[in-house]
Structures are given as C-alpha cells and as structure tokens.
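Both lines are given unchanged directly below:

***
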Amino acid sequence: MKTNIPVYDICSLTNNSKDDILISRFAHYLSVHKNLFIPHKHSFYHLVYFTQGGGSQTIDFEYVAVKPDQIYFMIPGQVHNWDFEGHVDGYIINFSAAFFQSFLLKAGYLDELPFFSGIVADSVIDIPADMQTIIPALFEELVKENAGEQLLKADMIRAILLKLFIAVSRLGNKHDNVPAYNYTLLRNFQKLIEKNYTTLKLPKEYAELLFITPNHLNALCSAMLGIPAGEVIRNRIALEAKRLLINRELGIAEIADQLNFADNSYFTKFFKKQAGVTPEEFRKHNHN
C-alpha cells in the first residue's frame, strides 16, 4: 500500500534492532525526536504522562488539550501528532506487543485494558489529585530500573508496568459496573471489526460470528457506547478513510477500492454522511 505517513517502530527510535521497549523522560525524548510533530503512526503501544506543559495533540483526528497530570495511551496503527506550547515534560513509554508475550499466559491481556481500546475518549485520562503522587512514582521506578543493569531487569519493568496499568484501570472506569460477559462481548465485537471492516459491514454479519442476534448486539452497543452496532462499524470505516486521505499519493478512487466500496460516488456519499465533509474537503483541510 502506498504511504507517505511516517510509521515508526521502536528500532527506528532507538537505533537498536533488538529493542522492544523505550522508557524516557519526555523532554529528553522530544529533544531527540524533533520530527514527531508531524502526523505519524506507531507500530508499538505508546503512553505519555505529562507533568508540565500545554497545547494540544490529535489522536486519530480527534483534538485533545494537553495539560499536567494527564496520561494517554495509544495502540499500534493510530495516527498522531502534537502541537505543544511552552516547556513540556513528563514520561514516555513505547513497547512492542512482543514485550509481554513471554511474560503473560493471557495473550490478549492488553486488549482487555479499557485505555488500549483505540477509542480516544477511553484513552486520555486526567489523573485525580489523590493519585498524582502515586502514578509519577511508578514512572520514576520505570526510569530508574531501565537505567540500571539489575538481575531480571526486563521482568521488573514488566511488573511495574502492569502495576501502572492496573492502577490507571481502577480510575473511574465507566465499564466498572458492566457484567464481565457484556464487556468481553463488546471487546470481541470491536476486535472482529478491526479484522473485517473492509469486508463485513452489517451488524448481522458480526452477530453471526459472535453467536448472538443482531438485536442483542445493537442493545449491547447502545447500552455501553451510546450508539448502535451499525454506527460502530461505520465509524471504524470512516476512521480508516481519514487515515488514508492524509496520504496525498492515494487517489479517492484508490481509497474507495481499498475500503471495498462499489464505486467512488458511493464512498464519497458515505464519507460525507460520517464526517460532514467530502473526502476532498477533508484532505484539503488536513493538508493545510
């Protein structure tokens, strides 16, 4: 697939082909990687905790204000860029999917964490006052452990990271009171969309794969996300269209074909209904 969107892996950021994790103070990271202010993608999991600074960032074309005591999480493939104001500092951690594979028996453990869903509203979290000492202390532990050469260093980093993930997961997760079965069903639906959004576009097709009725799937999405199942599917298709549209080497017809639309006209009508603008208008606005 043609692309002019930079896609970074950890190796390209550390110049070491064996690295599966990068831990750094954020101000130092920014001073080294000055090119990350333009829209780019990661092939790794990514999180930042801000201790100083302001401005904004966009995650998958959603604007988010930056402020101290805020943490955000990203999964591989999301489009991201920053527009900071003043001195910005904090902590940054990048790690590959493989980093935890040898440590956890549950291969899908990270997928169960609400902030690694790829949904921006669930991934940007303001840390409450009573945790604003605890969370930075965990990041400090990670920085110090990473700088040393103690026995089982990588496993200790994994253990501290898991402690951090659990602590953040407990901060007012809106799915806390949802039955475990419903939450698992929703995440399985979202995973199926991720794998099949170019070929399966109807709720009934996903309901069949989940062994439930379309009405059950719609009720689940409406209760947990506030939108019907069909809208969840269309939102994912529209998001991928936006990611492709910022690549000016791709024609509109090529994008329509990649997303499996019957023709360019149908794709344009779909995109305008979802995004409020035509593909050409979206591309022009984001290019400027």
In short: The chain has a mean pLDDT of 91. Residues 153-169 form the longest helix (17 residues). DSSP finds 13 helices and eight strands in the chain. The first strand starts at residue 7 and ends at 8.
